[in-house]
């Protein structure tokens, strides 16, 4: 699971500063403008009192004494006060605007980085990371990381106020200033304790946010099953349980903050109190005037604001660290595929071969354990095969025998644990990024259509003219129904192609592969929702239209198998026999049984259809 690494409580501050440094390095200009804005605000807060005093002395008092105000005096009062307000406004707007831009830029940048990394990571990594968690990484975790940039410019900018206050206090009376400043170590200790208490709670809350997103994602995805099997109450309960847990975790976070906040807020006041107590004593002994004590007490209250602003940053630090921990777990995830720089030849149909290829899935034994506690489940074992250029071969085998895994290996969606996959004699690991998909196309078992038009779903943004589109749709037996759709090629198909039937969706997905004119076309049970006569028509057209294509088809129907030049029969991840359909029928009992079962199923389906038609 992403980001389950526990944040070491003591190092939260160090890790938080590292996150801040990274953010500043990424957005130096906007951050500098925001800090400048906050500095202007801090300086102006100090100057306002001085400006008012000066105006009173220079304009108000003389006017009162004279019994009337000259227009020059009025202009002076209005001008100085307006200037002060204006500069202050510029400071506040500059800080908020530039700080916001820096924060949202960081969010956008890291969302892109995380999603880019998802695309880079191989299928094997995705198999172990549920979509809900990934959504949370790209959204809630990125947001949690960079939210600290909301109070940060202010906290840095008003450090000027802090420095100003401290220097002034030291000038007036160093002894009293030191008494007051003893609160700072106290504040630091309180903040360290706060972070120690917050880190584990924040980690838990952030993980639960991801869990809520995962359950929600699953429930929405499974809406059809939930509704059709009457599991709404069960799903509601499942969602309630995890959201209750999140609520409790958030309350616990709030409670912890509630325990620390008053103490952290009260410590500067304690400092003022100490200054007053010791100051009173020093006034009594005659070493300080009452005015000087009052001045130090006032200066101390000026320093309280920057201290509070620093407190806001420190309060956000644990969440930021936890968010970054989870985001960086994705960014640093190993397993991104290395690519070579070779191109696959573009010279008609490809040959495909595997040499002693094996692949095992990692299955997490205990989801609570850190990554690595997984057992291996072999899916493809020591497979050696070769498919000549332009041939059509069928891969046949019982369910779970490794057929889809084999197609994934041929497309380099995963790398074999041992052995090599060769296309036109080139190890797929040596091919440059994107090189395999330029030459080969896979139509997977599960069809996915985008919420786009038929045209958009077939071309996926590549430039193809309408004639090419119709040709591909024709081969995929989709042209007739697309013509009948309201807006033809420009008809929107809805989310995941919801407005189309299962068979129609499969045909659009097939056209998507065909239009790319692949040299290697892999169909993984890609026509299961199409009725058998149409499927045969599709495969016939495909064979005629694709003389320059090698076709590997995972087949479940006798008719499909009969179209193949050769059949590979797979059992338990191994190719146990290969040959023509007729040859395998005579010598491979497993194959014969499977084919008999397919034929029986087809006959039963045909009989049911005939009975239904007779009854009409
Ligand atoms: N993501 C995964 N994680 C763990 N095991 C997996 C995963 N995908 C497949 N497997 C396992 O690997 C084996 C081969 O699966 P695969 O999907 O390749 O079989 P298949 O022959 O295509 O099956 P079917 O005919 O049902 O589609 C199965 O035992 C399956 O349980």
Describe the structure.
There is one protein chain. It is built from 22 helices and ten strands. The protein starts with 11 loop residues before the first helix and ends with a helix. The strands form two sheets. Strands 6-7-8-3-9-10 form a six-stranded mixed beta sheet, sandwiched between helices. Strands 2-1-4-5 form a four-stranded antiparallel beta sheet. β9 (566-571) and β10 (574-579) form a beta hairpin. Helices cover 64% and strands 11% of the residues. It folds into two domains: 9-331, ABC transporter transmembrane region fold (Up-down Bundle); 352-365 and 373-446 and 518-615, P-loop containing nucleotide triphosphate hydrolases (Rossmann fold, 3-Layer(aba) Sandwich), CATH 3.40.50.300. It is elongated, with a radius of gyration of 35 Å. By secondary structure, it is α/β, with parallel strands linked by helices. The longest helix has 53 residues, at 232-284. The chain has helices spanning 12-26, 28-66, 71-120, 123-127, 131-146, 152-157, 159-172, 174-181, 183-221, 223-228, 232-284, 290-331, 403-410, 435-439, 454-459, 466-475, 479-484, 502-514, 532-545, 558-562, 581-587, 589-615; strands at 352-364, 374-387, 392-396, 418-423, 426-427, 440-443, 520-524, 550-554, 566-571, 574-579. α3 (71-120) runs antiparallel to α5 (131-146) and α7 crosses α8. It binds adenosine-5'-triphosphate. Adenosine-5'-triphosphate is lined by residues 127, 361, 363, 377, 379, 397, 399-405, 445. GO terms for molecular function: ATP binding. Residues 32-319 form the ABC transmembrane type-1 domain. Residues 352-597 form the ABC transporter domain.
């Amino acid at each position: 699971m992403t980001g389950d690494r526990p944040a070491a409580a003591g190092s939260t501050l160090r890790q938080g500063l590292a996150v801040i440094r990274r953010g500043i390095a990424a957005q130096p200009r906007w951050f500098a403008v925001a800090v400048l804005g906050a500095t202007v605000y801090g300086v102006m807060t100090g100057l306002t009192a001085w400006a008012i005093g000066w105006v009173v002395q220079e304009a108000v008092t003389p006017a009162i004494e004279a019994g009337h105000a000259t227009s020059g005096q009025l202009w002076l009062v209005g001008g100085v006060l307006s200037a002060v307000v204006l500069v202050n406004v510029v400071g506040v707007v500059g800080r908020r605007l530039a700080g916001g831009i820096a924060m949202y830029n960081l969010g956008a940048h890291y969302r892109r980085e995380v999603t880019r990394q998802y695309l880079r990571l191989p299928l094997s990594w995705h198999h172990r990371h549920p979509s809900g968690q990934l959504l949370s990484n790209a959204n809630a975790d990125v947001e949690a990381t960079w939210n600290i940039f909301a109070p940060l410019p202010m906290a840095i900018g008003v450090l000027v106020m802090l420095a100003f206050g401290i220097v002034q206090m030291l000038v007036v009376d160093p002894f009293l200033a030191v008494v007051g400043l003893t609160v700072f170590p106290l504040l630091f200790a309180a903040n360290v304790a706060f972070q120690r208490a917050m880190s584990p709670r924040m980690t838990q809350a952030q993980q639960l946010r991801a869990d809520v997103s995962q359950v929600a994602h699953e429930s929405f995805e499974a809406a059809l099953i939930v509704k059709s099997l009457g599991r709404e109450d069960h799903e509601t309960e499942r969602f309630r349980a995890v959201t209750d847990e999140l609520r409790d975790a958030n309350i616990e976070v709030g409670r912890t903050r509630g325990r620390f906040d008053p103490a952290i807020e009260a410590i500067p006041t304690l400092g003022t109190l100490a200054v007053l107590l010791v100051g009173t004593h020093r006034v009594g002994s005659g070493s300080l005037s009452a005015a000087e004590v009052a001045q130090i007490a006032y200066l101390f209250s000026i320093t309280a604001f920057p201290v509070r602003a620093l407190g806001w940053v420190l309060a956000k630090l644990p969440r930021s660290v936890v968010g970054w921990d989870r985001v960086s777990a994705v960014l640093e995830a190993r397993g991104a595929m290395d690519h070579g720089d070779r191109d696959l030849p573009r010279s008609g149909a490809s040959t495909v071969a595997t040499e002693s290829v094996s692949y095992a899935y990692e299955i997490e034994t205990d989801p609570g354990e850190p990554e690595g506690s997984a057992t291996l489940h072999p899916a493809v074992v020591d497979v050696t095969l070769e498919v000549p250029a332009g041939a059509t071969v069928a891969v046949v085998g019982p369910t779970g025998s490794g057929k889809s895994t084999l197609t994934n290996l041929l497309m380099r969606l995963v790398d074999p644990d041992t052995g090599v996959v060769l296309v036109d004699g080139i190890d797929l690991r040596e091919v440059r990024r994107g090189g395999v998909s330029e030459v080969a196309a896979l139509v997977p078992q599960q069809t996915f259509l985008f919420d786009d038009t038929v045209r958009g779903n077939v071309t996926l943004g590549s430039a193809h003219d309408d004639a090419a589109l119709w040709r591909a749709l024709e081969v995929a037996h989709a042209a007739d129904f697309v013509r009948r759709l309201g807006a033809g090629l420009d008809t929107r198909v809805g989310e995941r192609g919801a407005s189309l039937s299962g068979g129609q969706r499969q045909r659009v997905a097939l056209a998507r592969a065909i239009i790319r004119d692949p040299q290697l076309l892999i169909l993984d049970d890609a026509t299961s929702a199409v009725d058998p006569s149409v499927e045969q028509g599709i495969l016939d057209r495909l064979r005629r239209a694709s003389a320059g294509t090698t076709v590997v088809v995972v087949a479940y129907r006798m008719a499909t198998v009969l179209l193949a030049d050769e059949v590979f029969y797979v059992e338990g991840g191994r190719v146990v026999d290969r040959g023509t359909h007729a040859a395998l029928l005579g010598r491979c009992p497993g194959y014969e049984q499977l084919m008999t079962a397919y034929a029986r199923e087809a006959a039963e389906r045909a009989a049911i259809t005939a009975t239904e038609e007779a009854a009409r």
